[in-house]
Amino acid sequence: MEQETKGKYLQGVVVKTAMKDTATVSVDRYTKHPKYKKYLRRSKKYLVHDPGNTLAVGQKVSIREVRPISKRKRFVIAQ
After folding, report:
1. pLDDT means over runs of 10, the chain (79 residues)
2. Number of domains in the chain
3. pLDDT of residue 3
4. What is the pLDDT of residue 12?
5. Which domain holds residue 61?
6. Are the beta carbons of 21 and 76 closer than 8 angstroms?
7. Is 78 exposed, middle or buried (0-12, 13-18, 19+ CB in 10 A)?
């Protein structure tokens, strides 16, 4: 029986890999300013579970939301 995966899928760039089994991924999104109607680039950093430290800084990755792994880690590598 195939189980349906729930949660968000995001794409971003690895900006830090200094921690054990964890990488920091920066995810950009475009949003429109409510008054001036200009599009702005907003970014947010997520801690991502990376078993074995396989990622490198600058690499583009797809991440998937899962159950909490630690206090701030709620994403894993999707590929």
Report:
1. 75 97 97 97 97 96 96 94
2. 1
3. 62
4. 98
5. 9-77
6. no
7. middle
